[in-house]
Amino acid sequence: MQPLERSLSAREVRALAHPLRLRMLELLRAGPATASMLARELSESSGSTSYHLRELEKAGFVEEDAERGNARDRWWRRTTPLFLVSSDPAGDEEYAAALSQLRSVIVERDEQALQRYFATIGDAPQEWQDAAFLGGWTLFATPDEMRRFSRMVISELDKLRRPIGERPPDARSVYVTLRALLLAGSDATDGTKD
Fold first, then answer.
1. Is pTM, for the whole model, over 0.85?
2. Distance CA 178, CA 101 (A)
3. Which of 45, 94, 131, 142 is the most exposed place for a label (fewest CB within 10 A)?
4. For the domain that residue 148 is a member of, what is the CATH number?
5. Which residues form the domain of 117?
6. Is 75 domain-assigned?
């Protein structure tokens, strides 16, 4: 599946900058659902999920699935399987503020996932304890190399975000986070001499 190759507006980024909306988009990745189905999965009220679905619809991330709907149930589906958010606000203060909000939501999700991981890893089967990992590496790359690397990793990750019917029976939900951050004050030699 190819990512959405277009720039998002500040309004669209702001629509993404809500933890419940991000989770709903993840769930809709597996296929269309109703607000009630999402509410049950997320332990939320259907009023809350309905509201956030309408906000995602306004931003163009979801649409009504008229083929599945009826007078009682309104089904929703994602408009694209994957999208990328530019980290360059290009002087747009509204976009920069929305991006900052989205980054905060993502970092908070990462921190919560780490806390849950550390609290429960000892209870996981040994094969999952062996498969899980944390790591951090310092490397030297150009912006073009990092863009290619990011796209390659995202492409491989996207292959594992498969619908329910395509998942192996022993597949489990795994939260993967990846950061590629320029080190502050870094230069080509990272302060070392040959």
1. no
2. 18
3. 142
4. 1.10.10.10
5. 10-166
6. yes
